[in-house]
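Subgroup meeting minutes
Present: P.N., E.W., G.H.
Scribe: E.W.

1. P.N. recapped why we're keeping a running log of single-chain structure predictions: easier to compare across weeks, and new members can see raw inputs and outputs side by side.
2. G.H. added today's entry (66 aa).
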Amino acid sequence: MTIRLEILVLLSPNGFEDRFHHYCRQEKTNVKAYEEVEKEYESNFGKRRYASYDSFRVVMSRRLKK
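Output recorded in log:
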């Protein structure tokens, strides 16, 4: 079984964030964009990456400060 590269990038924080920004252009809210990425992640890896949108936002904020 091979996993497509576009799915594997979701494993890295940068890849997950990039996919989030991709969905932001398509969805009306950031929360909906985040949920789309989480659905994609969960369907491929069997669990959610972050506990909630707020958790994702905190991690993203910390990464931007560095």
